Amino acid sequence: MAASGAVRSEFLRRAHPAAWRHARWVRPVRVLACVVAVVCVAALVGAATLRATVLERGYYQGVLDDERAYDRLYDKVLVDPRSHPVTKSLLSRLPVPESVVTANLKTVLPPATVRQLTDEQIAALVGYFRGDSDTLGVSVNLRPVLANVGELAQVYLGDLASGQRASPESDVSAALARLDKALDRIAEGRKPADLPKVELSDRAVDTVSSALLSGVPSKERASLRPQVEGALAVGDAGTALAAAGPHLPGSKAGSGEESRRDLLRMADGGRWNAVRDLKGAGFETGALESARDATRFMQGPAQTLSVVVGGLAVVFLWVSGPPGRRTRRLRTVGWILAVGGALPAALFWAVRRGADDLLWQAPATWPASLAGLVEDLERNALATFTTAGLSAAVVPFAAGALLVTATYVRERHRALRRALVAMTRRTRTRLVGISSVALAASVVLGVVFAPSAAGGPERTYCNGSAEMCGLRYDEAAYLTTHNSMSSTADRFISPLQDGDIRTQLDDGARALLVDTHLWERSEQVAERLKVSDFAPRMRGKVADLIDRTGPARPGPWLCHAVCRAGAVPLVDTLREIRTWMDQHPGEVVTLIVQSGITGDQTASAFRKAGLQDLLFTPDRDPKTPWPTLGDMVADNKRLVVFSEGSGGPAAWYRGFYRYGMETPYDFRDPRKMSCAPNRGGTGKRLFLLNHFITDAGGSRLDAGQVNAKDFVRDRARRCGAERGRPVNFVAVDFANVGDARGAVAAINAARTR
């Protein structure tokens, strides 16, 4: 009997291949398969959301930018009275009064550097969450910051000495006494009460210079004397004080190098290990470690298991469904997708509604401005995360709802049913197959890309702003330093800047006006001085200094007319620019060269400095629109070099006045600064605004007026309207005096709206 029963079962199975679908175990397994498939869809939504947010740098960058975190750090947090103990301790060894701490923090820690350091930490955190690193190694490279510390005193003193307008002084002895008092106050890191301005004879210049340098160590006097004498020869007491002040024994102004060494020791040679210090302060990193375990599982095993197990579950549901009822099978898949999307959507919605209960609360001891910034960042991050999750969840939900609706329409719509019945079986099979593939592709691609669109891609920043990436090169404005190499820091006679070129770049300069020369022979000096813009008395002073400055030095130099009045090596300076640009990959920089060397010598210097790969080659036709800053950054062609002459022979070395125009540059009174055409004529795409006063050399005192934010912005607007082209290069003397940088930022902000 048993044998005949087995034979009968085998006969039935062969006669009805789908009979196993009616077995008792099939129904509960189908229910389980539905649950598993729904869970797998939900898991894919969660994994896609994490991948597009927590595991992407663009997510963090977008949150910081949306909340203007960098601007608020300087404009609100650091000026909050409750932040003063922290900000004071950051610069406790530097000669910076409390009232100007935040302004000098921008010098020591420029916003572009803050963004770079923050991006480094974001990259380290994302790498940790992705599993690229087994340890959380968030360490901050302080070398970009420390590089600025040594220059702060020099720049600060230049600004300090410019804070007082000179008053006429006819009595040399009285002037000397007032200079002596001013020097004492500068050595203490305080603002001078007043500065005298006198017409000094050569003998008086020697006397006053000796008096100013009497407190400087003897080994420093010889190198400082030309700079001090040169400044006093044109009545520029401010530059003389700024040059001598940092070298006085015990001067707070001279502590920049000491601070740099101390900070290097504290930071283990330049890197600050934030995690180690946080753990030492009792901060638990267990939450980050748990989050990392979760993200690694979700982006690895969870995704693979969801695809494989979910796929097998759907296959089982399809083959175990009623034979000949493809519509019901499709409806089952539709319900799985719809429910699998609805569950995470409900979860993300609940998280968004309960955001206030999920936010970390800052300690009560924190300044309100800092606590508010952190809270806004958390809220924005959570909102962006849930938006990305909802975007991912809506894809399977919409696809499932569409599929369920379509199956109901198919069953109840007679005309459609007759059309389907009229098709051959092969055609119907193809239609179902194509629809299934299209549906699966739309769900997978939608789940992958929808949260990425909501979370935001990794952002590109151009000259410190994501918005500026959309401006063409000829639409943007650039803070430009006039005679950039001629600085107090590099001991030029009659300098036109205080910080060196690297400091100028850190402080926001994005275009540099420089002069190249070969070191002149003694007999050539007189001829050069005749065509220089030195004042007549300054020419005599430079000529007198020739015998004291040593023999001619080989190679190309950056000099202001006469290399014996101050010079820095061309190739070494270009290498510093290369290093800076490597550290700031989103910055576009322009050099406009008044060339005293040949085009071949210029090209050789750039080649030796390793800058060839960064050089941008302008179109031969000056009327051709320029690329956007974003295109230049993406192509890594971010250095534009013009010659004030004809340029060439290198293709990237074009003559500026073929492409650009300018205003006059010999204004002696701020009230007479016009927009009249000068070199380059009119109608060019690039516009150089010469915005400085020349009065027997550069005027540090007038820089305080003409570099004021409203003064710069109003003149740029007026000249742009008169000439029919927006101003691009705002060239200033003593860029650290006033707020020309703020004016250029405001101009660009208006152009990106």
From TrEMBL:
It comes from the Bacteria. Keywords: Membrane, Transmembrane, Transmembrane helix. One of its GO terms (molecular function) is phosphoric diester hydrolase activity. This is Uncharacterized protein. InterPro entries: PI-PLC_domain, PLC-like_Pdiesterase_TIM-brl. It comes from Streptomyces bathyalis. The chain crosses the membrane at residues 302-320, 332-351, 382-409, 430-450. Pfam families: PI-PLC_X (PF26146). One of its GO terms (biological process) is lipid metabolic process.
